[in-house]
Amino acid sequence: MEFAQAFGAELIVLHVVNSSTIGYPSLERGVPIDIQSILATIQESVDKSLQILAKECADKGLKVQAISRLGFPAQEIVRVAQERAAGLIVMGTHGWTGFKHLILGSTAENVVRTAACPVLTVRSPKDRGRGDSQR
């Protein structure tokens, strides 16, 4: 929000529901109805939360769009940035290292490697300075 205010930029708030954690990389024909129902419920909840956040941003005078997507997070973040001609992607990172990073990968790292625009990653204050054994 501070960057958008400082530069008079539009803020795009994006949340990607990671469909791979449910066992399906994307919604394609043949996905069982019950899985589609679960995904729809998740999507509704995400959309409601994003609208609350968008209103909070708008109340501070920001021009904001709230977008939710379903898919692989890094791919969708880069896709939305390209579609909206974003000048900067600002995203959080868990700051995982070692075994967790090896197994789980890094959405932020993949976005940094594939995005056409600059990417600013920000670690959560609670993750700063913590050892790998505590994560």
The fraction of residues in strands falls at 15-25%
Helix-strand pattern: HEHEHEHHE
Helix content: 40-55%
Distance between the termini: 28 Å
> What Rg do the Cα atoms give?
16 Å
The order of strands across the largest sheet is 1-2
Unreliable stretches (pLDDT < 50, length at least 5) are 131-135
Round the mean pLDDT to the nearest integer and report it: 81
Describe the main β-sheet briefly. 2 strands, parallel
- Summing up helix and strand content along with how strands pair, one would put the structural category as alpha/beta
Describe, in plain words, how this protein is organized in 3D.
The radius of gyration is 16 Å and the shape is globular. Helix 3 runs parallel beside helix 5. The protein folds into 2 domains: 71 residues, no CATH class; 63 residues, Rossmann fold, CATH 3.40.50. Helices cover 44% and strands 19% of the residues. The strands form 2 sheets. Strands 1-2 form a two-stranded parallel ribbon. Strands 3-4 form a two-stranded parallel sheet. Strand 1, helix 2 and strand 2 form a beta-alpha-beta unit. By secondary structure, the chain is an alpha/beta fold.
